[in-house]
Amino acid sequence: MDDCSLGPVTCPVSPVHLLVLVLACRPMTILPRTPDLVSQRAAMQKLSFLVGSWSGHARLLRTSGEFVELHQTEEARYKLNGLVLLVEGIGRATSSGEPLLQAIGFISYDDETGAYRMRAFNEGRFLETQLALLPERKGMTWGFALGDIRTRSVLRINENGAWTELAEITIGSQPPKTLLDLIVYPQP
Prior knowledge:
It is elongated and about 90 Å long. The chain is mainly beta. The longest helix has 10 residues, at 15-24. Helix content is 10%, strand content 55%. It contains two helices and twelve strands; from the N terminus they run ββααββββββββββ.
């Protein structure tokens, strides 16, 4: 075995053995924590008021600045044994039946941070955000920001059991405008 020199001290260790020793003493990789599935499912059950088929109408602000009237449907279903809520909305122009609003969202709960997260897809784009339950527990709020554009949405189940949703958009320093005003009713 060759001796290696460490200044005035010599040691009977080869460079290969030294490398093995250094690698063996490195801190081990920490495994990610195991999610608390019971906690996640319990939190997701708080969104059960959305589950089902819904139908009604909506008004959507178009880029022209005019509103278009829509026949709106919403489908909300649990997936992955209650860990994810899938929500799909389709708005068809009442005048032509043409789909003008098609969106799908996935809602989950992060038990480590205690936050609900939503990833929503629409027109080839996606956005991610946190959402918060309203104090009365039959509603929620969320928003998105993209450059100078911000949105804020509030969803509630009203006293008649209808799903209402109001989304506002703010562009730059302009005052907020209604982007979407929706009311849908549970379907059998």
